[in-house]
Amino acid sequence: MTFTWLRRREDPEAPEPLYEPLASLLRERAQEPGAWPPRLADAAAFRDVSRHPARIKCALLSWTALRKALS
Predict the structure, then answer these.
(1) SS3 for 31?
(2) Phi, psi (5° rounding) for residue 26?
(3) Alpha helices, H only, the chain
(4) pLDDT digits (tens, 9 = 90+) for 6-55
(5) CA distances from residue 17 to 13, 48, 53, 64 in whole angstroms, order as listed
(6) Could you tell me if residue 52 is left (phi over 0), alpha (psi between -120 and 50 degrees) or otherwise beta?
(7) CB 69: neighbour CB atoms within 10 A?
(8) Phi and psi at residue 28, to the nearest 5°
């Protein structure tokens, strides 16, 4: 999913615009079905991760690695 998103981006060296919204949505407990913005539509598959706090870090692993690689 991260790779697909990067291919569509104009500036692949800027993962920040989606990292923070994704991370905050994963950390929220109560989520409305329409809470996920259209730009994060593919990431909605991770909606249930918020019920398992130990899995949030796993879901964000590729994004964290990308941020570190580009910094």
Answers:
(1) coil
(2) -70, -30
(3) 2-8, 16-27, 53-59, 61-70
(4) 666 666 555 567 788 888 888 886 566 667 777 777 777 887 888 888 89
(5) 11, 22, 23, 13
(6) beta
(7) 9
(8) -75, 140
How many Å apart are CA 67 and CA 52, to the nearest integer? Answer: 23
Helix (H, G, I), strand (E, B) or coil at 19: helix
Q: What is the pLDDT of residues 37-47, one digit of tens each?
A: 777 777 778 87
- Considering the entire predicted model, what is its pTM? 0.64
Residue entry with tokens 């919204």:
21
Joined together, the tokens standing for residue 55 give: 């899995």
